[in-house]
Amino acid sequence: VHTAGVADTTTGAAPEATDHMRIASAAKAFSGAAALSLVDQGKLSLDDTIGKWLPDLPAAWADVTLRQLLSHTSGLPDFTQNADFGAAAGASLDTPLPPEQLLTFVYDEPLVFPPGSRYMYDNTDNIVVGLMIQAATGKTYAEVLQEQVFAPLGLDSTSLPVGTEMPEPTLHGYDLDEQGAPEDVTELVAAGWAWASGGIVSTPA
After folding, report:
1. What is the pLDDT of residues 115-156, one digit of tens each?
2. What residues contact residue 109 under an 8 Å CB cut-off, 6+ apart?
3. Which residues, in sequence order, are CB contacts of 11 under 8 Å at separation 6+?
4. Which of 28, 112, 139, 151 is the most exposed place for a label (fewest CB within 10 A)?
């Protein structure tokens, strides 16, 4: 294990492989693993559509498949690029909206391209995957992650929190302001704002 710097500028503690950190968009691998586990069990199909499992989402999204969502070829608009989403998150960093409301910011936006015609990295895709997982199982996405991924692989230091809190020990994150000392932003933003697209906390190990 190679390390650099410190895990906490206050204590000077060295980073450890057992320190908890937000894994951000590496969380997308976990939503993929959970979905494909359910595909393997016959509870989902890669050809299942948004319309089948989530009929209340925009009609323009209805024919998009799980395969397209997982491969970022859906053409869905990215909710994190919407200015109203940014304003909502910025106004309430520590209290996220429920997952099913994250996508409402782009309900009125057109598809970026015909589904399946090209690739575009897209945070909306994995939120929809998480919602499809819930619809197909009748369980929360966090419960399915625990049953299908965390527990079978022995990932007992991996979790999907909702709020800002971080387990100890923690690998701290900082905003580097040129005008002052690094600002600890480890617990600034609630994980629920990213949910299935980036909310997981884990360790390097």
Report:
1. 999 999 999 999 999 999 999 999 999 999 999 999 999 999
2. 77, 82
3. none
4. 151
